[in-house]
């Protein structure tokens, strides 16, 4: 017997993120303006735009770190179908990788401690109780990312690329549904970039949803098909990679002439 539409919709999982007419003010200025967006659960996306376009602000809205203005236009801002979240419950669904996070690990702690801290959303272990299951999971994720040798080393002694993979490991230990990567390749050399891409592809294929925030089109791994382009706090374009990553679009997005080329599923910008 075929399902009717109402039955079908009631069995569909809610989108990962859904917002209608949301605006964000920071320091008295509107930095997101009447944004409408739906990101289905399980869809890998890249959020692409110039500096200051509102990408990180959008991630803060998604993580319920900041809230939309409750003006007359506001309609909804839901994560996994819910407006209200206890922040720790919400964080359990996400793993976050950012430069800011990496640079908060300034103390001399080992790679293993860094990864274990992912279970507690903390920047060290402090008095948290580490179980044998947690330790097991750390070794499993370290094997997956090929960073077992980093576990006994101090994070301060690792190169940027090595530390970045450790931070990714930290983001994955609690088995999040979604991995948010905010400018993950900044400060990495070509070899580290190559290695990171390889592991990001492996993670995407493993079933973890990737949300990549970047201003570099070469960061976009082939598994990501949808591009959300932001400019001046607005949605500039939203659609599939093949139609959006063109020289004309990217030139308009960054306000300079840019030539875009595709090679083996990756896109590259030149001529600027
Ligand atoms: N706490 C704040 N107070 C005032 N303005 C802010 C604050 N946080 C962000 N902004 C402003 O909001 C705008 C969007 O910032 P956001 O960090 O979201 O941009 P972005 O696209 O992530 O940029 P980048 O690529 O440089 O990281 C910028 O103009 C920024 O100056």
Automatic annotation (TrEMBL):
UniProt-listed SUPFAM superfamilies: P-loop containing nucleoside triphosphate hydrolases
Domain ABC transporter: 17-257
Cellular component GO terms held in the UniProt record: plasma membrane
InterPro entries noted in UniProt: AAA+_ATPase, ABC_transporter-like_ATP-bd, ABC_transporter-like_CS, ABC_transpr_CbiO/EcfA_su, Metal_Ion_Import_ABC, P-loop_NTPase
Gene Ontology annotations of biological process type: transmembrane transport
Subcellular location: Cell membrane
Molecular function terms, GO-annotated: ATP binding; ATP hydrolysis activity
Sorted UniProt keywords: ATP-binding, Nucleotide-binding, Transport
Keyword Nucleotide-binding set for record: yes
Keyword Transport attributed: yes
Any Pfam family hit: ABC_tran
Membership in a protein family: Belongs to the ABC transporter superfamily.
Function: Probably part of an ABC transporter complex. Responsible for energy coupling to the transport system.
Name of this protein: Molybdenum ABC transporter ATP-binding protein
